[in-house]
Amino acid sequence: RETHEAGLYVLTIMSALTASSLFTSSALRASKTTTTSSTSNKNKNKKNSSSFVVCRSQKQQQQKTSASSEKSISLLAPSSSKNECIQQIAAKSKAPPPPAATGPTPTQIAAGVFAAAAIGVTARKAMKKKAKKIVIAGAPASGKGTQCELIVKKFGITHISAGDLLRAAVAQGTDDGLKAKEFMDRGDLVPDEVVVNMVKSRLNEPDCAGGWLLDGYPRSASQAEALSSYGIEPDLFLLLDVPDEELLERVVGRRLDPVTGQIYHLKFFPPPDETVAKRLTQRSDDTEEKAQNRLKVHHANVNAVLSKYKNIMKTIDGNRQKTTVFKEIEGLIKSM
Prior knowledge:
Elements: H1 2-65, H2 71-93, H3 106-128, E1 132-138, H4 144-155, E2 158-161, H5 162-172, H6 175-186, H7 192-203, E3 211-215, H8 221-229, E4 236-241, H9 244-252, E5 254-256, E6 263-265, H10 274-279, H11 288-308, E7 313-317, H12 322-334
Parallel strand pairs: 1-3, 1-4, 2-3, 4-7
Antiparallel strand pairs: 5-6
Helix pairs in contact: 1-2, 1-3, 4-12, 5-6, 9-11
């Protein structure tokens, strides 16, 4: 985030310098034009002066060499030469005036100022529009998955589910996956050393630079502290609040379509046809017994997590229509 904001700050400075450079160049061109015109005038004056000196010299020479017999002519010659000189000087003095200095007009300056201001405003908005970093929490079956889909669709940030990361590791049979499986099957929290590195690595991938939505993690104070130790801090913590009895009904009736990844519910969101219904599976931890244990673990740990993020936490009533819940969440995210 700091690198991104620094880049945007540099953009603002460069925009201002560009505008300043444009005005400075205009002023320098105007100054150069004025200086050139002044130099040209000086050269013309010097030339006129030289012509006048030459004429005087010719007059004097003519006076010295004229014979006395031609006195009447010699008397006229100086006057004629003088008139010639005067006429030459007058002709040269009638040269067109130097062109006026050309610089930016008041209208051009005003347009430049407004353009620079517009660039600055755009850059400042970009700086303010920092990446959205959100954590969404709630008990199992509180509706986190559904709301995450809606958030991602609306705001285009990257969704990261700690549960999905763990289940993928289990399916792939990795060392961490095998360690996690025995805890997940009991409904217990997976040890921090197993899951923290998974989450940290995922958050450091390029697609998270524009913002991320961390789903179902952290679930304990130790996990929250582990994230902080890596410099990972959310800006908004959403907590979906649903009564336990409602949660149990949601969990037990939940089914997964292994082909599409779609989650259905036998009561609230049944499959579209019999073909899909026959291939549905139930997660190993979605039985009533394991769900009750997961709720117990959730309540035991959630308070410690909430105390960590109390300054950025917003509690949402999750026992409503999903569209109603999302409308409230959307307003909170937009106000970030």
